[in-house]
Design goal:
The chain is built from 13 helices and ten strands. Helix 2 packs across helix 4. The two termini are 38 Å apart. The chain has 364 residues and is α+β, with helices and mostly antiparallel strands. The chain folds into two domains: 206 residues, Ribosomal Protein S5, domain 2; 129 residues, Alpha-Beta Plaits, CATH 3.30.70.890.
Length: 364
């Protein structure tokens, strides 16, 4: 079984992609802004590619159910989990990967394979569970077809996003960049650069510079903001409040990069809190969801800095006062019924083949 780098077509390939935390700047990635994200080892999705005579996309025994004990079981399942499983993600990945290679004149051999997946990323927690499956599958395909050095690293997040767009998933590049690169990544989605190169400017930072962080999440985030937000439409229509607020959020990431490099953790805590407050002003409580807001407020009740990891469902918290404050936070989360775990950061995921596939525009 091959774990890294290229592969011969006869080997079983397994690849992982990890949950990600939006640390500073989200959701400005969708608005030509800046973000800092970190990949975490706490949760991951893994995809297994095994050579086979025909091409198989194998359903997951839990996430792609087609057999139910009763009609009520089916309906309850759909109400709680939706229609979404991983099979559609794997199929969309195959389509987008194949089309890109064909368009770029990248030769693919004719051998077939079976795809299967596992994931322990909690659903609906804003930890990028869907994109992790796509990212892991994409990585498998890179190695099965030995094209890891032919598809620029900077382009891969867009291809992963394209696969999700095939399924009507609306999202930004931040999650996919973090999951492709691994570790701690600063991203600048400046509009002119995006239009010119088709990707942002992505810089990996030393994750050892981060202070201890904690992830707070709800096991069953049923109230994760059911009201559709009008922020995107207002931004497109030139709403001055939304445009100026989103620029402020983007600038927090720029300040956050300096704070991390200088280990100014008091400043980082302040930026995290400001990030959430600006988001709340723009989106409103109904769109954010009472449960999500409660997670932030539980953290703040003990003096911890806190903000959403993504669109809701989970919160990243930092306790500037150290272990004693962490204990208070753990107690507060337990009383409120939330799970809390120390964040374990994933190292860089780029190997020698990926480094070769980095284009010269990375930090241009």
């Amino acid at each position: 079984m091959k774990e890294n780098g290229s592969s011969s077509s006869g080997e079983i390939i397994e690849r992982k992609a990890y949950a990600r935390i939006g640390l500073i700047g989200n959701p400005s990635d969708v608005y030509y802004g800046r973000t800092i994200s970190v990949n975490i080892e706490n949760f991951n999705a893994s995809v297994r590619l095994q050579p086979s005579s025909d091409l198989f996309i194998l359903p997951h025994h839990t996430h792609d159910l087609v057999q139910f004990s009763s009609l009520n079981h089916l309906v309850n399942r759909l109400e709680n989990e939706g229609y979404y499983g991983g099979v559609r993600l794997l199929m969309a990945t195959c389509k987008v990967f194949t089309k890109y290679c064909k368009d770029q004149g990248i030769h693919l051999h004719d051998n077939n394979f079976s795809f299967s997946y596992e994931t322990n990323i909690p659903r609906q927690t804003g930890l990028s569970g869907s994109s992790a499956i796509v990212c892991a599958a994409f990585s498998c395909l890179l190695d099965f077809y030995n094209v890891r050095d032919k598809i620029a690293v900077e382009i891969r997040p867009q291809l992963i996003l394209n696969a999700e767009k095939e399924l009507g998933i609306v999202a930004g590049l931040q999650d996919r960049v973090a999951q492709v690169y691994g570790g701690l990544v600063y991203m600048d989605f400046e509009e002119e650069h995006m239009h010119k190169h088709g990707h942002g400017k992505y810089t990996q930072l030393n994750s050892s510079l981060l202070p201890p962080l904690h992830l707070i999440y709800a096991e069953n985030p049923s109230d994760s903001g059911k009201v559709h937000s009008s922020v995107r439409q207002r931004w497109l229509e030139g709403d001055e409040f939304i445009i100026s607020s989103m620029k402020q959020v983007a600038n927090l990431a720029l300040e956050g990069k300096t704070a991390i490099l200088e280990k100014d953790y008091a400043k980082l805590a302040d930026l995290m809190n400001k990030n959430f407050d600006l988001r709340r002003q723009m989106f409103g409580d109904a769109a954010l969801g009472a449960l999500n807001i409660e997670m932030v407020e539980v953290a703040r009740s003990v003096g911890a800095a806190s903000k959403f990891t993504g669109s809701g469902g989970a919160v990243v918290a930092y306790c500037p006062d150290g272990p004693s404050q962490v204990e208070l936070l753990e107690d507060a989360c337990k009383k409120s019924g939330f799970s809390i775990v120390p964040v374990k950061v994933v190292p860089s995921l780029l190997n020698e083949f990926d480094i070769r596939a980095l284009s010269s525009t990375t930090e241009a």
